[in-house]
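Proteins fold reproducibly. Next comes a concrete instance:

***
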Amino acid sequence: MTTKSILLIDDEPNIAEVIAVCLESFKGWKVQIANSGKTGLSIVETLKPDAILLDVMMPIMDGITVYQNLQKNPVTQNIPVIFLTAKVQVSDREKFAQLGVVGTIAKPFEPLKISDQIAELLNW
């Protein structure tokens, strides 16, 4: 079985590092971190990750804009995306679902459970 790879796009380095350590330790997945939407978009085609974890609220380019850019690109439009967000109101979740993301994980998240949440959302 090949190792799953995830591109994590989050502007908060400490949170990104915690997530990466959890996913690598508990599931053995390879995690690449991009600390901005622009960086994530610039490396996604080269990386060809199996999935993308994407923070919604980031400066300069928010997660929704990043997601829309991914959807416009034939190379990246089929990569499943999971939003990481503090926006967990029903209306926010409905809006995210309409965009076509695989799912949403609320911040703050439970470090010991996030890898299982991701695996469940992606059917891994």
User: Anything to note?
Assistant: The domain at 5-122 is CATH 3.40.50.2300 (Rossmann fold). The chain has five helices and five strands. The chain has a mean pLDDT of 94.
